[in-house]
Amino acid sequence: MHLLRPLVIAFAGLIFAATCVAIEAAELSLSKGDHICLVGNALGERMQHHNWWETLLHQKFPKHELTVRNLCFPGDEPFQRIRSQDFGTPHTHLTHSKATQVLFFFGFNESFAGVDGVVAFKTNMLKLIQETKQQDYSGKGAPRIVLISPIAFENTGDSNLPDGKEHNVRLEQYTHALAEVAKRANVGFVDLFQPTKSLFADSSQRLTLNGAHLNDNGYRALAPLLMAGLFGQSTIELSE
């Protein structure tokens, strides 16, 4: 992809540093023809408009003939998904998409409940995983599941916006909760909180719209971090 390299080169040093520091093991293995579905909140939903991650995904697996479906909606929680009448259940849409891999983006909205909401969040996530494991959306068996943590809150320096200190305390708690759930349920987990916290601290450019939601530069920087968490990359490979 000839356009990718010039678009990301300004961020290369920053992204390399964040990737190498924050990510450890691979959490996802793909087979040819896999259907990857993103399910969850605005962090995932906005990736269809700033689609740097999917660009890197297809670049890394050019012969896998992957299908990606973004089923995220802003405000979605594990069992709170507001839709129009007769929209269809989450399982209906995952079946329609023939999901073999499901990436769950949860934890930001729920974090506003604070420490008192952690137990309920973990209970709901475990229930969601158990329900999903019982499904066969693709005709090939239960889907592989990976939990994706919230990102950190950026201190933008804008006096009209929060500095993120209180937000990050809560977001870290819910990131830890997701890690515990993933271990207990034997599913994958990617921590985006710690690498984005470092990313924001080291960046000379603003990477969010409001501290909470990434701008295009933020999604461009996030893409290799998510790739590294899912597939264990320690470097970013850009095609000429």
Question: Helices and strands: which structural class?
Answer: alpha/beta
Residues in helices, as a percent range:
40-55%
Taking the sheet with the most strands, its summary is:
5 strands, parallel
From the spread of the alpha carbons, the general shape counts as: globular
Strand order of the largest sheet: 2-1-3-4-5
N to C succession of SSEs:
HHEHHEHEHEHEHH
> How much beta, percentage-wise?
5-15%
Mean pLDDT: 90
Q: Topology, please?
A:
Layout: H1 4-8, H2 12-22, E1 35-40, H3 42-45, H4 52-60, E2 67-70, H5 90-96, E3 101-105, H6 118-133, E4 144-148, H7 165-185, E5 188-190, H8 193-202, H9 216-231
Parallel strand pairs: 1-2, 1-3, 3-4, 4-5
TL;DR?
This protein is an alpha/beta fold. Helices cover 41% and strands 10% of the residues.
Descriptive account of the structure:
- The protein is α/β, with parallel strands linked by helices and 240 residues long.
- The chain is 41% helix and 10% strand.
- The chain is built from 9 helices and 5 strands, in the order H-H-E-H-H-E-H-E-H-E-H-E-H-H.
- The protein has helices spanning 4-8, 12-22, 42-45, 52-60, 90-96, 118-133, 165-185, 193-202, 216-231; strands at residues 35-40, 67-70, 101-105, 144-148, 188-190.
- The longest helix is centred in the last third of the chain and has 21 residues, at 165-185.
- The N and C termini lie close together (7 Å).
- The model is unreliable at 1-24 and 234-240 (pLDDT under 50).
